[in-house]
Design goal:
Mean pLDDT: 96
Bound molecules: zinc ion
Shape: globular
Strand content: 25-35%
Structural class: alpha+beta
Number of strands: 16
CATH superfamily of the largest domain: HIT-like
CATH class of the largest domain: Alpha Beta
Order of helices and strands: EEEHHEEEHEEHHEEEHEEEEHEH
Distance between the termini: 30 Å
Strand order of the largest sheet: 4-5-6-8-7-12-13-11-10-9
Radius of gyration: 21 Å
CATH architecture of the largest domain: 2-Layer Sandwich
């Protein structure tokens, strides 16, 4: 039912050193089982990564210079109308959620995790993450209650500047719109096509197939299961699937706890690889649709070499062709050897 299609190509050329023997370098083109979009698993030149350290920049940008630090947040961030938040902002523990002054959508909340300005990847605790997710959840429910016109929701995270984040103080973005993003439009449409053909939810079928194959399954959890995407959107591509959760209404506090727990585990793996920055997309169907499911994608962001070359080039930007130096099945074996995501 799930088609894991891949094609191999070899580039054959003469070794510049040695005795002039011929080298064969493989490019593997993989096709996303849902959308058919291709990704390339390319030859790994032996990338050595050092995670960026923002300690010094953190000192320079915190406090009075940061809109999200305690000095400023209650003074300069905007407030919601009272039907969304009677006090203007949504607070859960140390997390504060407020309107984005420069919105990307009809509704756009921003939430900080805590008062800590620079949080290193390994400093995130499940509690910090859960507080921000709970705030996002309250906001999503209020938006849906008060604006029946909205159809698409997501919770998103750019962590650290490599990922596109312009403020060091960690924060997530809740986006609710009448219009889908390309990702939402494509996955919902293809998911409906899959459902019409097989009478089964694509994500559930994918998880079942991966459970059988045991090549890319990272964890099968009570609420949340993890896979590495077959056709990755970047050098790694973790998919979290809430296997029984079809809509916003079905999300409970247990879901957030599971997500926070597993993210902290996943961060250990990223850190072990010299990675720190990432993009995350958490897709939340507003209305129940048997063809769609609550799920997330998390991909690392990095720079290459001493020029700090961007990891996005003409392939991703214009050909819309993701590249990966890592072989998904090897990544999953490594995660398992390291004992990550076992609990
Ligand atoms: Zn700050």
């Amino acid at each position: 039912m799930i088609d894991f299609r891949r094609e191999e190509e070899y580039f054959v050329f003469q070794d510049p050193g040695g005795k002039g023997e011929m080298l064969r370098r493989k490019t593997e083109i993989r096709f996303d089982p849902l959308t058919g979009e291709s990704s390339r698993v390319v030859y790994d030149p032996g990338l050595k990564l050092t995670p960026p350290d923002y300690t010094e920049i953190g000192e320079k940008t915190k406090g009075a210079k940061c809109p999200f630090c305690a000095d400023n947040i209650m003074r300069i961030t905007p407030k919601f109308p009272s039907e969304i938040a009677p006090e203007g902002r949504i607070k859960v523990g140390e997390s504060v959620l407020f309107p984005n002054l420069f919105p990307y959508s009809k509704h756009n909340g921003v939430a900080i995790f805590s008062g800590q300005h620079y949080v290193r990847l390994l400093e995130f605790t499940p509690e910090m993450l859960v507080n921000a997710f709970r705030g996002a959840h309250l906001y999503l429910k209020k938006v849906v209650e008060t604006d029946p016109g909205v159809r698409y929701a997501s919770v998103n995270w750019n962590y650290l500047p490599y990922s596109g984040s312009s403020i060091l103080h960690p924060h997530i973005q809740v986006i609710v719109s009448e219009q889908p993003t390309n990702y939402q439009a494509r996955t919902v449409k293809e998911g409906e096509g899959f459902y019409a053909q097989h009478r089964q939810n694509y994500y559930q079928a994918l998880l079942e197939a991966e459970k059988g194959l045991q090549q890319r399954l990272i964890k099968f959890g009570e609420q949340l299961s993890w896979l590495h995407a077959f056709a990755p959107k970047s050098h790694l591509d973790f998919m979290g699937i809430f296997q029984d959760t079809f809509s916003l209404e079905q999300i409970t506090d247990e879901h957030w706890k599971a997500l926070a727990h597993d993210l902290v585990e996943l961060f250990r793996y990223l850190d072990s690889q010299g990675l720190a920055s990432f993009n995350m997309l958490f897709h939340v169907p507003i209305r129940e649709n048997p063809a769609d499911l609550v799920h997330l994608r998390l991909v690392p962001r990095l720079t290459i070499g001493f020029l700090e070359t961007s990891d996005i080039n003409f392939f991703q930007m214009l050909h819309q062709e993701p590249l990966s130096y890592k072989v998904p099945e090897e990544v999953v074996q490594e995660i398992s050897r390291m004992g990550i995501m076992t609990g």
